[in-house]
Amino acid sequence: MADVTPPAATTDRGAGDEPELVIKVRDLVVGFGERNVIDGMDMDVRKGEILGVVGPSGTGKSVSLRAIIGLTPKRAGTVEVFGVDLDAASAADRLAVERRWGVLFQQGALFSSLTVRQNIEMPLREHTNLSPKLREEIARVKIDLVGLKPEAGDRFPSELSGGMIKRAALARALALDPDIVFLDEPTAGLDPIGANAFDRLIMTLKDALGLTVYLVTHDLDTLTTACDRIAALKGGKVLAIGPMSEMVKNDDPWMKEYFRGERARAAGIGATAA
Ligand SMILES: Nc1ncnc2c1ncn2[C@@H]1O[C@H](COP(=O)(O)OP(=O)(O)OP(=O)(O)O)[C@@H](O)[C@H]1O
């Protein structure tokens, strides 16, 4: 493994029983051209939770994810991960934090010219000095962990189904045994059975590995089944954050339509509101 020791997680505990935070976003502003897409966003992500991030289309859910991991530049604000302010940190400290997260981008974003195994080995090549044999062994374990057959390791992304691509991308996100995974619409494009299986996989991995999950989604089933809390973004800010039982009581027009509308009722969420 690489020789950088990750900084210890902040407990961030107050006087009471406040939950331990692994991500703390304050006054985040992210924009393009003259428009600020994220405009003063505060967000806390608790250790060990699956936080579902929802909001109207184009409201900045993916941008928030990309800004937290530093792929999209901020105009203002701070992002702390494991108590490390990512802008103020030294390069070594920042790298140490980056090693503790894995990311599943929309569409999987696997390298098309590499096999699944080579894709999973890529972060291990970049961040560790492991031998090729050990890298291959870890890739084999991750392939098994996400429920793919061993043969899938030799396939190229173009030879996989949508569900297999998501699983392969998740295996790659898990390559470095992260503490946090960022998932950008992981069930988009999957049929309901495949989506449900993927939700269950994320929950199982969360429980087994103690993962914290930042999950951007439109999928009401995912929110109901898998998420401990939900953050609803609107107007560049977090409009509401809490469990589903709180979301269904919110009287913002978009929230009402989303959490109490026809699709929500079809997903059985109306019952929660009663
Ligand atoms: N690199 C970029 N350059 C310019 N505009 C961008 C860029 N990335 C995102 N945007 C704009 O920022 C806004 C928010 O995009 P984002 O992808 O975060 O939306 P979203 O909430 O995830 O939407 P959806 O639910 O439709 O996926 C959109 O208007 C988008 O066009």
Automatic annotation (TrEMBL):
It holds the Pfam family ABC_tran. SUPFAM superfamilies: P-loop containing nucleoside triphosphate hydrolases. Residues 23-260 form the ABC transporter domain. GO terms for molecular function: ATP binding; ATP hydrolysis activity. PROSITE patterns: ABC_TRANSPORTER_1, ABC_TRANSPORTER_2. PANTHER family: PROTEIN TRIGALACTOSYLDIACYLGLYCEROL 3, CHLOROPLASTIC. Belongs to the ABC transporter superfamily. This is ABC transporter ATP-binding protein.
